[in-house]
Amino acid sequence: MIRTSDGFDPLLRRPLSLHDAGDVWIELFFRVAGRGTALLAEKKEGETLDCLGPLGRGFRMDGFGAGRTAWLTGGGRGVAPLYYLARTLISRGAGVRVFYGGKTSAEIPLREKFESAGIPLDCATDDGSFGFAGFVTALLERALEGGRPDGLFACGPDAMMKRTGRMALGLGLPAQLSLEAVMGCGFGACWGCVHRIKKDDGGQWRKICEDGPVFGADEILWEEA
Amino acid sequence: MADLSTDLGFLRLRNPVLTASGTFGYGTEFLPFLDLAAVGGIVVKGLYFGPREGNPPPRLVETASGLINAIGLQGVGVERFAADVLPELRRRDTAVIVNVCGSGDEEYYRVIEFLDGHEGIDAYELNISCPNVKRNGACPAMDPRATREIVAGAKRRSRRPVIAKLSPNVTDIASIARAAEDGGADGISLINTLLAMAVDLDTRKPKLGNVLGGLSGPAIKPVALRMTYQAARAVKIPVVGMGGICTGRDALEFMLVGARAVQVGTANFVDPASAVRIVREIGDYCDARGLARAADIVGTLKTGL
């Protein structure tokens, strides 16, 4: 959770995932979507950033070592944590392939970064201005017709997570989905960022910040549109 | 170092800073961030008798210097609270006030009767002012008679002090404060959130799943201060002020208009150690001004009226 202002407007911290990290550094990647992220984008080298974290439960990578393959799907700003995830999985010996979607070729800004890190990448744009023309979930679906990874990992807007989760469940593939939400605190105190998660007797609202943001596709219940 | 201790009559506090219900979880969520013994006390999230679902998301909208929430009091209920949370809180040296909810008068009383059978609670705060439970935002604290009756019923049953938490969504806060006093309340706390809403012009949809919500944060501080002032003038029982408090100076302003203690709410989300910082800032202010006791500032506003 990142504080964007020293004062109280904007009031709340912004929930951002780790885009990359090393021994003594972290990297954040975000899109300027409002005043908070606009202020964050103005931060200069040498300034201090008020960060609270890491918080919640991230992607679980146990079992993904040599000889195992993971396919990662991300769209929009949801692609942010997939870079760190891809690097980590590769360093553990797992085979990685990334599916990256955006509205236009301008909205897949991390394409070159993935490519120069040598991470196998397939892109999709809604308007067809780069790569596959259509949603990244359609691109993933087509790829799944030709091959199967040992697991899926995804982060992005709800519609993308819902589609990816359904696909994974249909194929019997384990999938971990990272959910997005507006968050009040980030550490489980406000109960503001809930999603319906399966329980014995149906479902219950669970906190995305604390119990997630990553849930198994088989745990998540979606509202019928 | 100034003396920060605060006497509510029914409860002595190490300092005047409490954490507000609904913004501090059950207290245990904050253990990684602050020492509970450093605050005056904590008011834990509102408890119904049984577990409660809460409202559908979205539950939060940020507004200018504020936050509208429509959580709907999702919670674990008294049994799990007593079994899982209370033992943990009893190991900490801090005052514990439990915020008590109910769908009708009887449920408030059942919660109190159940909790009366457990140790480790210093007082109850009757949540008769949550705007997120009924569709139209209505609550008992909007009506003097309902306020008096529910407080009197709680007092008859409770072996512990009862604080009535009041709503700002009323025409005359003084009459509601007096109704709580008439009902036998040991103290009052105010304000709960201001009934509010936010809409998306482009999609023409409400921004909250519950349509209506409650506004909190620095945006409401002037309203909260005014209502604390009016309520404190209307009653003799102790007043606990809250609404947008983010700094030690904010807290002292509420004390200046008559609050004996304060609650820190939304600031806990932004900085989980806010309450402890505010305690320190109150001490620093008193030391810098040569005030021996922070409590000496209570109700000393010079209005000239």
Task: Summarize this structure as a short list of keywords or feature phrases.
heterodimer, A: 225 residues, alpha/beta, Rossmann fold, seven-stranded mixed β-sheet, two-stranded antiparallel sheet, globular, B: 305 residues, TIM Barrel, eight-stranded parallel β-barrel, four-stranded antiparallel β-sheet, 16 strands
Describe the structure.
The complex is a heterodimer of chains A (225) and B (305). Chain A has helices at residues 35-41, 80-91, 111-116, 136-146, 158-171, 208-211; strands at 20-21, 26-27, 69-75, 95-102, 121-125, 132-133, 151-155, 175-178, 194-199, 202-207, 214-216. Chain A has 225 residues and is α/β, with parallel strands linked by helices. Chain A has a domain at 69-216: Nucleotide-binding domain of ferredoxin-NADP reductase (FNR) module (Rossmann fold, 3-Layer(aba) Sandwich). In chain A, the strands form three sheets. Chain A has a seven-stranded mixed β-sheet, sandwiched between helices. In chain A, strands 1-2 form a two-stranded antiparallel sheet. A two-stranded antiparallel ribbon of chain A has the order 9-10. The radius of gyration of chain A is 17 Å and the shape is globular. Chain B is of the alpha/beta class. Chain B has a single domain, classed as Aldolase class I (TIM Barrel, Alpha-Beta Barrel), CATH 3.20.20. Chain B has helices spanning 77-90, 105-116, 144-157, 173-182, 221-234, 248-256, 267-270, 274-289, and strands spanning 6-7, 12-13, 17-19, 41-47, 60-63, 66-69, 95-100, 123-127, 162-165, 187-190, 194-197, 199-200, 205-206, 212-216, 239-242, 261-264. Chain B has an eight-stranded parallel beta barrel with strand order 3-4-7-8-9-10-15-16, surrounded by seven helices. In chain B, strands 5-6-14-11 form a four-stranded antiparallel β-sheet, with no helix packed on it. In chain B, helix 6 (248-256) links the parallel strand 15 (239-242) and strand 16 (261-264). In chain B, helix 4 crosses helix 5 (221-234). Chain B is globular, with a radius of gyration of 18 Å. The A-B interface holds A 3, 8-13, 52, 181-185, 187-195, 204-205 and B 22-25, 29-30, 32-33, 45, 53-54, 57-62, 64-67, 69, 71, 74, 217-218, 246, 266, 268-272.
